[in-house]
Specification:
eight-stranded antiparallel barrel, globular, two-stranded antiparallel sheet, alpha+beta
Length: about 170
Amino acid sequence: MKKYIFITLLLPMLVAMLAGCGDDINPKRPIVDQPGVVFIENGRRDTLPTDISHEQLKQALIDNDWEFSYSFFYDDYKIGNRGEDGYVSRFRYDFGADGTAVATDLTDGKTYSYNYTVTARMVTLKSAAATFTFGVIGMDKRHMVCDESLVGQVAPGYNSSSLTRRMIFVARK
């Protein structure tokens, strides 16, 4: 009789354990941007002013040439490494006060012309061939940290519903 009671009690526990497999909740990454602190590759942190106005952003774009340094992917669960993003070329962006920008490919010297707009902290570069939009997370006189949404695109090991490219630009001038 004890065996039957034991099996009767054990069976629901076994079923519950088996039914729970595969339904584990994937915790969100604990590293997020905070006022004055942004995350960079591998979850390292960098201190950087994050409270920038529209006017400050626009002026900083005009005052410097911004050279693409590196990028990495992140999503709601994972922060990637420098080099996993397949950007082959490095560009330097020169923003004019007239709303035009020139991107120079540093590998071959080719230039590409854009019109740009700044809305709050979003920068949109537009040409006949392409549109490129990124949000400025933080910046100072030396570098700028930006995010480009890649929601719906695929990068191995990342959730496509929250995929983002974080780009680091260095000020040149």
